[in-house]
Amino acid sequence: MARVSTRMPQALYPVTRQARVTLARSLHWGVSDGLPRLALRAAARRGDLQGRLVAATAAADPQAVWRVVEEIRARGPLSPTAFGFVTTHHAVVKEVLSSSAFGAGLPASPQPWVARLVERTTPPTVHPLRPPSLLATEPPDHTRYRRLVTRVFTARAVEKLRGRTEEIAQGLLDRMARQTGPVDLVSSYCAPLPVAVICEVLGVPEAEHQRVLEMGTAAAASLDMGLDWTAYRRVDSALAAFDAWLTDHLTRLRDKPGDDLMSQLVRAREDGVGLDEQELKATAGLVLAAGFETTVNLLGNAVALLAGEAGVRSQLATLRDDPSLWANAVEEALRLDPPVLMTARTCREETEVAGRRIPAGALVATVLGGANRDPEVFDDPARFDVTRGNAREHLAFSAGRHHCLGASLARMEGEVGLRALFDRFPDLVVEPGARRRPTRILRGFEALPVRVA
To answer: Is there a contact between 230 and 448 (Cβ–Cβ < 8 Å)?
Structure first.
């Protein structure tokens, strides 16, 4: 009797490359975002401080975050959570961010199979939280990357961009002046201004500015943990598109280098060694995030503080009387409503912080926005005051070796952008309908309707 095969014909169940990619992405989302998402939600329901803080970032009430921040502060300088520890105290945040006992990145999973699954399913595209990104590397790699990059992105180089930033701002304001009715300040000004500037840094042709803006906006949530499946796919697609675009862009810069800073970075060498392709991509991606995302949020948050419903318009009068205060106004906006709400560090070796033993592998969440409102450092910390003498002591740009690479650029753009906006439209008013971005780490406005006349 002939043997009957129970094997299905191959044609009936072909596994396409796209199917394999989709499966890998699904598995990666499950272990990197799906499970943490469930854990964060469960922790929030139990009253866990870190879980509640993450949940508060999605609340309709913008003050919900700050209420949880003050609850965390009331528990002491460093509080245990279901995920490790959390702190809002300025001194502790600064210590953790600056200490060699702590490093970037999340703790490795205690389950070997989870770690292997993450490794095998991680997309090969650039990501701000994966090596060789400066945000995810430690010495000696971090030291080499940063030294090469800071040679190019010096304060002097950034200052040379001031005149061009002023030109771009005036062009955008001219366009706003021709519009009638309410204007969305984010899409009309807060986003295109830093995008145009960072595109000059990256040597991007003007025809591609809008594409860079769209990719950067879609990838903003890549810093968040616990994305839902839809958000994960959107971020994954944006990062893949950005990776492919960067490959072509770096090829163009090598063939026809310009005077832009990115062309200089492509040529930069230390002891004969420069950045390889993946390192250049990671750096360009981080420069885009540091020079674009933070500034979009800075501009929108500052306008809401100065001219919003809950704003303090008397501060505008102070700035008109003394325009030299605009730089300090930027620092105060960074302090009170920072573009990045929080970050985290993993303990690399057992240590002690604020009288608590921190075991190796423990995660410490440092709430930058909480540190910036520490009453031990800032008098009347919830008050917006452009004349505050120590406003620059904020930690909005982090601290230590991972201090924000784009800090000087963001400061310059903030000062130029805000001063130009209110010089042109001194009676600008924020209209109803402002909407916060859904991101958890990055804090800013998705839409900010204003009336300029």
So the answer is: no
